[in-house]
Amino acid sequence: MDFSLTKEQEALQQEAREFGIKEILPVVHYFDKHDQMPVYLIRKAHAAGLSNLTIEEKYGGKGFGLMESAIVVEEIAAASPAMGTSIFGNTLGMEPLMMSDNEGAKDHYLPIFVKEPKICSFATSEPMMGSDVAGIRCKATKDGEDYILDGTKYWVTNGGYADYASIFATVDPKMRHKGICAFFVDMHQDGVITGEPIPKMGHKVSNTVAVKFDSYRVPADHVLAEPGKGFILGMRTFSRTRPIIASFATGAARSAMEFAIDYAKKRRAFGKKLEEFQNTQFRIAEMYQKIETMRLLMYKAAWEADSGMDPTVSASLTKFYSTEKAQEVVMSALQLFGGFGYTDMFPIEQILRDIRVLTIYEGTSEVQRIVVGRHAMNAYKPAMPPLDELVNLRADDPKKAAEEGMPEQKVWRCRICGHMHYGDEPPDECPVCRFPSSAFKNVWPKE
Ligand SMILES: Cc1cc2nc3c(=O)[nH]c(=O)nc-3n(C[C@H](O)[C@H](O)[C@H](O)COP(=O)(O)OP(=O)(O)OC[C@H]3O[C@@H](n4cnc5c(N)ncnc54)[C@H](O)[C@@H]3O)c2cc1C
To answer: Which of 35, 138, 360 has most ligand 1 atoms within 8 Å of CB, for mutation?
Structure first.
């Protein structure tokens, strides 16, 4: 196991860091105050080669893995997690195309994304559903070989500026996940109507809108997933993009910690610098610990994806861990700033507003817990035997057991409280829970 970055990864990290510090950090406060997305920064990131990182080389792309994406995204998010959403929304939008088997659409569109700073959105969510992706209502009606889209998608990141989008719809809402299909749509054609930007608590430099489809015709060669295959495509997309949200969290938390350290070295109280209080040192140590853990989990998910494994569980794990811990780190940093932390004259309040959504979009923390809980309880293979088989681990042969130092006698286990009784017969009554002898099961020797 090697935790070091390659020379190329280090260089990429440095490039992204410089871009974040020189291009994003100095202007993000202004655009946040004006509730405006600086679209020019998306174009600049494209020109700097810092977006659309995972487009394969055969389409002219860089062919980077999730690991390189995670490294770049952390640096951009350190300058502004919301600008991270704006810049890397493209990856979310293009992922269904890249994972589809529509070779024609890939051959046509992916080189365009490499050459031009085109914007691509993604939409599963609607006004009436978000977590329950199988509950999509936007209707896809077959018309000859084409499909006609009717319905409203909601919360569409970059939707007001998008050139293209991966849109999930259904042939019949009653079919639930079996009816879901996906399309790659040109957002400049008739039948696409976008709403006003949705007013939000944070992520003000990220455009979020409703997109209404009104008899929008999708040509047959723009289908990414036929009915019944769209749900899986959506879930596979999230397995690759959730680690990126963890990178947003890591970058943002890291900045908050760094600003807090700087503040603690300068601010004085009771005749001392804040950094001299042990409370401050412990606070920073905990921030540092959480950030390191976030990054390790995120790298593991990225490594799994890049190694051809299914990263679904690790992606959920890192998403809910990192996004929740980031909130703790940023809240802790704000506390260290005292009253100034609560003002918009220092960057912490903006970071706090910007990261609040990370536990919500691309699957809430609750949804991630469902994925991880289901895995841990059903798919994960425990090493330990079931509790009521513990005694069975003794040698099969009672005589051999006696030679190994264990008394040659029967073992009985109370099924109610787990009490072990050693002897030829069970006791009349369990001495611990007082249930009668019928509660005892002979657990050794094996019958
Ligand atoms: C800034 C922003 C940008 C976004 N960008 C996009 C985008 O580009 N594309 C896109 O498609 N969507 C986008 N979204 C939508 C986002 O993915 C959804 O908001 C999110 O999935 C939650 O859905 P919901 O808001 O409908 O909440 P609901 O699904 O209504 O959930 C409400 C609450 O109930 C909980 N809950 C729901 N079901 C369960 C369950 N089974 N068990 C336990 N708890 C449950 C949820 O965790 C949540 O706390 C964006 C949202 C925001 C705020």
So the answer is: 360
